[in-house]
Amino acid sequence: MDASGTPAIGRPRFAFLAAAVTGVLMVLSFPAFDLDLLIWVTLVPLFAAARGAGGRRGFFLGYVAGLVLEAGGFYWICYAMIEFTELRGALIVVPVLLFLVWLAYSALIWGVLGWSLGRCRSPVAIHLVVLLFVAVEEWFPRIFPWQIGGAVHARDWLRQSADLLGAAGLTYLILLVNAAIYLTVEWRRGRAPFPRVTVAASATLLVSSIIYGAVREAAIEEALESVEPVRAVLLQPHIDPREKRDIELYFDHLAWAARESRSGDPDLVVLPEGMDPIAFYVDEDEPLREHVLRDGRSVFDLVESPFIIGGGGVTRERRVRNTAAFVLPREGTEGKPRVSFYSKNKLLLFGERVPFEEYLPDWFRKRVFVGTMDPGRECPVFELPTPAGTRRFRILICYEAVLPEFALEASRGVDFLVNITEDLWYGDTSHVGQHASVLSMRAVESRTPLVRCANGGPSGVVDATGSFSGRTRPFTRAMTRVEVRPRRFFSFYAVAGRWFPLAALATVVVIILVRRRARSG
């Protein structure tokens, strides 16, 4: 990718505007706007502005697009940092500065895209840029991982292709279509030959993905009709996270769960993350020793169905964990309820893991509601007894369910997944739709259904096709009765497709080396 050629948009101010337009269009393509048809032309302005402009200028233009995108799409990170703390008034400058630092970092990936565009010697070399970006997007370290391919999460047929190459495959398809449109514009302006190969390849892949998706979705839906469902009740309390330590409120929620467990005889009742204010002693002989009523029964005996509730786990070393308890009705020896735990493995940076916490000044630490927790080290399989037999599942807490590799590994050997989450820290922002939309991609990649119960919503079931059903309205106190079809289907992505970004990078390296050798020879 030698720097030569002339960018389609030569004037700096117009190029700057074109890069910013790409950022705006990208924001509009995702929740909360969901104007996802824009994604097919979103990158055309940046391609036109940066291609052939040179590495330095290309990086700057890509970085501008990234700043606009990341600021407009992830402003809720700043909101959450303010909510996690009492740094308001004059002290609000601290979370704002932290957000700006994060923004400067997160836009770097778009700078890489712009740099590679700027180094394109010819318009056709944009194919290498597309492959390179697929790899960079996959491995660029992010707090909240997301991919361009996720923009089509609501397109049922297109979404199904994620079980082949994951969301990265859809990113490639979207970038290839953008490249075909850009090269066609260049042809119309007399700056490049007609891109018949690019247009044919992008059209063929797009049509093939739609046909594959229609056939695959129909086959899975037909197979699911014969699967006996697990009937679940999802309770969405919608309470301020700071009020979760209120014991009376806690017993109100248990009473709510008890009423629903007696109504309709569900197989499973689920309450969201952090709802239990009483400690679970996760590695001791009596983990529920403080969950005892005056008559000697466990507080969990109030609920007559198997249920899941999130709370705080405490280790022997008195380290705190973000823990979920799976409780079966009273049975077994000594009349104790059977309870098993999962402690969150992947801790949220600045939410559950504060870097260099011990070095922070006291005035700052006293105003922060969170500290560094102890991570769990296992992801156990739980067994749920149902009239149709025992069903196996794993629990993922909060954003663990959006991590591609972790969610994929958790899906192995189980019939479904359960995701409990606390999302009210992020307020009524685009985070709500973004978080939920990513779950559709994870469900298709692993072809494993997922039950989601969120404090602020939406709660419901994402089935093996990525369809979100039984969905509650966000920011309301709600209850939904759902049926999850506990069956996992074959996914090529789970076997080999996740290596696609590596193959893309290897292709770029090989082509560049071959071209350099040819020139030097």
What is the compact description of this entry?
The protein is α/β, with parallel strands linked by helices. The protein is 42% helix and 15% strand. The chain has helices at 12-29, 44-50, 55-73, 76-83, 93-106, 108-118, 126-139, 156-159, 162-188, 196-224, 247-262, 362-365, 404-411, 431-446, 492-495, 500-520; strands at residues 230-236, 268-270, 276-281, 307-314, 320-330, 337-343, 382-386, 389-397, 416-421, 450-454, 460-462, 468-469, 478-484.
Strand percent estimate? 15-25%
Q: Would you count the extended β strands for me?
A: 13
Helix content: 40-55%
Average pLDDT reading? 91
Radius of gyration from the alpha-carbon trace, in angstroms: 25 Å
Strand count, sense and barrel status of the largest sheet are: 7 strands, mixed
Please give a structural write-up:
- Helix 4 runs antiparallel to helix 5.
- The chain is 42% helix and 15% strand.
- The strands form two sheets. Strands 1, 2, 3, 4, 5, 6 and 13 form a seven-stranded mixed β-sheet that branches. It has a six-stranded mixed β-sheet with strand order 7-8-9-10-11-12.
